[in-house]
Prior knowledge:
Layout: H1 2-19, E1 28-31, E2 37-41, E3 46-47, E4 57-63, E5 68-76, H2 85-99, E6 103-115, E7 118-129, E8 132-142, E9 146-154, H3 159-172, E10 174-175
Antiparallel strand pairs: 1-2, 2-10, 3-4, 4-5, 5-9, 6-7, 7-8, 8-9
Amino acid sequence: MRYLIITAIAIIGFRIALTGSPVSVESRTVQTNDQKLQLTLPAGWETTTLPFRRGADKLQAQCTGKNTYLNIVSEPKSDFRFQSLQEYADAIIKIEAGTSQLQNRSLTGPDKIVIKGKDALRYQAVGTRQSVIVLCIKTFIETPHRWNQILILTTPSHLDDLQDDVRRIVESFEECAG
Protein backbone atom coordinates (compact mmCIF):
# COMPACT_ATOMS: atom_id res chain seq x y z
CA MET A 1 0.00 0.00 0.00
CA ARG A 2 2.79 2.42 0.91
CA TYR A 3 4.46 1.68 -2.45
CA LEU A 4 1.22 2.56 -4.27
CA ILE A 5 0.88 5.88 -2.42
CA ILE A 6 4.51 6.82 -3.11
CA THR A 7 4.09 5.85 -6.77
CA ALA A 8 0.88 7.90 -7.08
CA ILE A 9 2.56 10.96 -5.53
CA ALA A 10 5.54 10.56 -7.88
CA ILE A 11 3.27 10.31 -10.94
CA ILE A 12 1.28 13.39 -9.93
CA GLY A 13 4.49 15.31 -9.25
CA PHE A 14 5.92 14.25 -12.61
CA ARG A 15 2.72 15.31 -14.41
CA ILE A 16 2.78 18.67 -12.62
CA ALA A 17 6.45 19.12 -13.51
CA LEU A 18 5.66 18.56 -17.17
CA THR A 19 2.75 21.01 -17.27
CA GLY A 20 4.15 23.74 -15.03
CA SER A 21 6.04 26.85 -15.94
CA PRO A 22 9.60 27.47 -14.80
CA VAL A 23 10.07 28.19 -11.11
CA SER A 24 10.60 31.90 -10.64
CA VAL A 25 13.43 33.28 -8.53
CA GLU A 26 11.54 36.57 -8.29
CA SER A 27 7.90 37.33 -7.63
CA ARG A 28 5.83 37.84 -10.77
CA THR A 29 2.31 38.87 -11.69
CA VAL A 30 0.24 36.26 -13.53
CA GLN A 31 -3.19 36.44 -15.11
CA THR A 32 -5.87 33.86 -15.74
CA ASN A 33 -6.16 32.63 -19.33
CA ASP A 34 -9.26 34.80 -19.84
CA GLN A 35 -7.30 37.80 -18.43
CA LYS A 36 -10.09 38.60 -15.95
CA LEU A 37 -8.06 38.06 -12.78
CA GLN A 38 -4.48 38.52 -11.70
CA LEU A 39 -2.24 38.04 -8.70
CA THR A 40 1.41 38.04 -7.80
CA LEU A 41 3.16 34.74 -7.20
CA PRO A 42 6.06 35.00 -4.74
CA ALA A 43 9.52 33.73 -5.65
CA GLY A 44 9.61 29.93 -5.85
CA TRP A 45 6.06 29.62 -7.19
CA GLU A 46 5.12 28.49 -10.71
CA THR A 47 1.85 28.22 -12.60
CA THR A 48 0.74 24.68 -13.33
CA THR A 49 -2.28 22.55 -14.16
CA LEU A 50 -3.28 20.37 -11.24
CA PRO A 51 -4.84 16.96 -11.93
CA PHE A 52 -8.09 17.86 -10.14
CA ARG A 53 -8.92 20.92 -12.26
CA ARG A 54 -12.62 21.86 -12.70
CA GLY A 55 -14.41 24.34 -14.96
CA ALA A 56 -14.56 27.12 -12.36
CA ASP A 57 -10.81 26.83 -11.67
CA LYS A 58 -9.14 29.85 -13.23
CA LEU A 59 -5.51 29.66 -12.15
CA GLN A 60 -3.37 27.04 -10.46
CA ALA A 61 0.16 27.23 -9.11
CA GLN A 62 2.56 25.36 -6.89
CA CYS A 63 5.56 25.89 -4.68
CA THR A 64 7.31 22.54 -4.56
CA GLY A 65 9.83 23.77 -1.99
CA LYS A 66 6.97 24.30 0.46
CA ASN A 67 4.81 21.38 -0.72
CA THR A 68 1.99 23.82 -1.42
CA TYR A 69 -0.61 24.29 -4.14
CA LEU A 70 -2.78 27.26 -5.11
CA ASN A 71 -6.13 27.11 -6.86
CA ILE A 72 -8.23 30.13 -7.82
CA VAL A 73 -11.95 29.48 -8.24
CA SER A 74 -13.91 32.35 -9.75
CA GLU A 75 -17.54 32.54 -10.79
CA PRO A 76 -19.53 35.35 -12.43
CA LYS A 77 -21.89 37.10 -10.03
CA SER A 78 -24.48 37.16 -12.80
CA ASP A 79 -24.83 33.36 -12.46
CA PHE A 80 -25.94 33.54 -8.81
CA ARG A 81 -28.45 35.30 -6.59
CA PHE A 82 -26.16 35.79 -3.59
CA GLN A 83 -26.53 39.17 -1.91
CA SER A 84 -23.27 39.12 0.06
CA LEU A 85 -19.86 37.52 0.26
CA GLN A 86 -20.92 35.77 3.48
CA GLU A 87 -23.93 34.23 1.70
CA TYR A 88 -21.69 32.97 -1.13
CA ALA A 89 -19.10 31.58 1.31
CA ASP A 90 -21.80 29.85 3.39
CA ALA A 91 -23.19 28.14 0.27
CA ILE A 92 -19.75 26.92 -0.84
CA ILE A 93 -18.83 25.69 2.66
CA LYS A 94 -22.14 23.79 2.87
CA ILE A 95 -21.57 22.14 -0.53
CA GLU A 96 -18.02 21.17 0.42
CA ALA A 97 -19.14 19.68 3.74
CA GLY A 98 -21.19 17.16 1.79
CA THR A 99 -18.65 16.41 -0.92
CA SER A 100 -15.26 16.61 0.81
CA GLN A 101 -12.95 13.63 0.41
CA LEU A 102 -11.14 14.54 3.63
CA GLN A 103 -11.71 12.31 6.63
CA ASN A 104 -12.11 13.94 10.06
CA ARG A 105 -12.59 17.31 8.34
CA SER A 106 -12.78 20.33 10.62
CA LEU A 107 -13.35 23.95 9.68
CA THR A 108 -12.41 27.15 11.50
CA GLY A 109 -13.43 30.66 10.62
CA PRO A 110 -14.42 32.89 9.17
CA ASP A 111 -11.76 35.41 10.02
CA LYS A 112 -12.75 38.76 8.56
CA ILE A 113 -9.87 40.40 6.73
CA VAL A 114 -9.57 43.41 4.44
CA ILE A 115 -8.03 43.18 0.96
CA LYS A 116 -7.48 46.47 -0.91
CA GLY A 117 -10.17 48.12 1.19
CA LYS A 118 -12.72 45.32 0.62
CA ASP A 119 -13.95 42.80 3.15
CA ALA A 120 -12.84 39.19 2.67
CA LEU A 121 -13.43 35.98 4.61
CA ARG A 122 -10.80 33.37 5.52
CA TYR A 123 -11.50 29.82 6.63
CA GLN A 124 -9.16 26.96 7.40
CA ALA A 125 -10.11 23.34 6.74
CA VAL A 126 -8.07 20.42 8.02
CA GLY A 127 -8.60 16.73 7.33
CA THR A 128 -6.90 13.50 6.38
CA ARG A 129 -6.63 11.98 2.93
CA GLN A 130 -4.79 8.67 2.47
CA SER A 131 -3.07 9.08 5.87
CA VAL A 132 -1.79 12.58 4.98
CA ILE A 133 -3.02 15.57 6.99
CA VAL A 134 -4.12 18.23 4.51
CA LEU A 135 -4.65 21.89 5.36
CA CYS A 136 -6.64 24.24 3.13
CA ILE A 137 -6.62 28.00 3.65
CA LYS A 138 -9.73 29.35 1.87
CA THR A 139 -10.06 33.06 1.26
CA PHE A 140 -13.31 34.34 -0.23
CA ILE A 141 -13.07 37.68 -2.05
CA GLU A 142 -15.77 39.64 -3.82
CA THR A 143 -14.74 41.68 -6.86
CA PRO A 144 -17.04 43.93 -8.91
CA HIS A 145 -18.17 41.14 -11.27
CA ARG A 146 -17.11 37.87 -9.63
CA TRP A 147 -17.27 35.67 -6.53
CA ASN A 148 -13.73 34.34 -5.91
CA GLN A 149 -11.99 31.75 -3.77
CA ILE A 150 -8.25 31.56 -3.21
CA LEU A 151 -7.46 28.03 -2.03
CA ILE A 152 -4.02 27.20 -0.68
CA LEU A 153 -3.40 23.50 0.02
CA THR A 154 -0.49 22.30 2.11
CA THR A 155 0.47 20.17 5.09
CA PRO A 156 0.61 21.49 8.66
CA SER A 157 4.41 21.33 8.80
CA HIS A 158 4.65 23.97 6.04
CA LEU A 159 2.11 26.42 7.45
CA ASP A 160 4.56 28.67 9.30
CA ASP A 161 6.78 28.99 6.20
CA LEU A 162 3.77 30.00 4.10
CA GLN A 163 2.33 32.89 6.07
CA ASP A 164 4.15 35.60 4.10
CA ASP A 165 3.38 33.92 0.75
CA VAL A 166 -0.32 33.61 1.63
CA ARG A 167 -0.49 37.27 2.62
CA ARG A 168 1.28 38.43 -0.55
CA ILE A 169 -0.83 36.25 -2.87
CA VAL A 170 -4.14 37.28 -1.31
CA GLU A 171 -3.26 40.98 -1.07
CA SER A 172 -2.23 41.05 -4.74
CA PHE A 173 -5.42 39.40 -6.05
CA GLU A 174 -7.61 41.59 -8.25
CA GLU A 175 -10.13 41.59 -11.06
CA CYS A 176 -8.68 43.14 -14.21
CA ALA A 177 -10.36 46.06 -15.91
CA GLY A 178 -12.36 45.31 -18.99
